[in-house]
Predict the 3D structure of the following.
Amino acid sequence: MIALTGYLVIGVVVLPLIVAFNKLTADDDSKSLSNRLRDIDPKREKLWYRILDDVIGPAMVGLLLVPFWPVMVVMMIHERIFSKPNPTTFDAPEFAVERTDLLEAMGVREVEQRERILDPLGAVPDLPFGHLNAAWEKFLEKMEPQDELWAFSAYWTLWGRKEQRLGYVIVRGDVVGQHFLTMRKEVEDPVPENELAPIRVGGKRKLRFKWLNRLRDTVD
Amino acid sequence: MTAQIAEKLIYEGEKLSMCTTPLSDYFAFGGLSPLFDALRCTALWRGYVGTWEIVDGRLYLIELHGALESGGDASVATVFPDFPDRVFAHWYSGTIRIPQGKLLEYVHMGYSSTYERDLFLDLERGVVVHTRVRQNGTSETGGAAEGYGICGMTVFSRSRTHEESIP
C-alpha cells in the first residue's frame, strides 16, 4: 500500500513538471486549444470558461493520467531525442530575382515617370504606381546611395503554378537584393485545342480529354 | 478547404460571379491590408467580398463587404481611404474567370467547380485586352440551377455557431 501511494505521489509531482516543461519549450506562435476555441467563440473569454478550459479540464485529464506517469515520462524523453521537424511548418521557397532576370538599369525618376497611372474616371492617385505608391516609397527607403535600380522579368513556379513576374530590384554591387513587384501573371503551358472535349453530365461519365473518351469507347 | 464565395462583377449590365480575387495581388504587391476576420466563415477564407465593375474596358473595385478582426465592418474605404467609391485596379494583370450556365461538376474546394461555360477576361494592368468563352459541356440534369453557387459552409457568429446551406 505504501509503495502504491508513493508511486501515485511521484506521478502527481512529475506530471505538472512535464506540463510546465512542455509549455516552456513550446513554439511561441503555437496556439493552445483553449485559445483557438476563444478565437472562434468569444463567449469563452468569460472567467468561468477560462477556468474550465485552463484549470478544471487539464486537472481532470491530469488526474486520469497519474497512474500512467512512467509512460508520459518515456514519451517525453522519446519525443525529445527522436522527434523530427514538424512537416506542417515547411517553409515555401521564397521568390528572389536572379542576375539573369535583370533587364535594364534605371534611375528612380525614370521609373517613376514610366509608372505613372492615368484613369479617365480619376479612380487612381496621380502618383507613381498609383494605389501602390506607399509601398513603392517604402521600397525606396531600402536603397542606399551606391545601389542601382534594375527592371526585371522572371518566371516563378510554385505548387505547379507558373507565373511571370515583373518589377524592380535593388542591385548592390554583385548582389541582387530586394524587389518590388508590379505584375504577376499566370503563364499556362497551353493544352492543344483538339485535346479538349466537352464534359458531359447525366449520360456517360464525364472525361475531360478526348483521348480518355476514345479509350473509354474502346473499352466499352 | 470549402468552396469559396465568389467576387461580384458588373459586366455589360449584368451582375456576375467572378472566381478571381484581384485584391489578393494588391496585397501581395505591398498594398496595405487590413486584418480581415477570416475565421467567421469557412466559405470566405479571404474575409471579404468585393464588387467589381468593367467600365470602358477597365476594372474597378466599387464595393467591399467584410468583417475586421477588430470587430468593425470593412468597406472600400478601409483599404483605400482616399478612394471610397471607385478604385481602378491597375495592379491586376491576369485572367478573370466568370463561370456561366448550369453546374456540371461540383467540387467543394476553392473555385474548382465546373460550369457549362467559362467567360475569361484577360487583363493587362487593369485593362481588358482579350475576352474568350470556353464551352465545358452541357448539363443533362434538368433542374440544375444556373450560375455559380456553393453547397455549404459553416458560419461562426459572435454568439452562436451554425450550419447554412446555399442552394
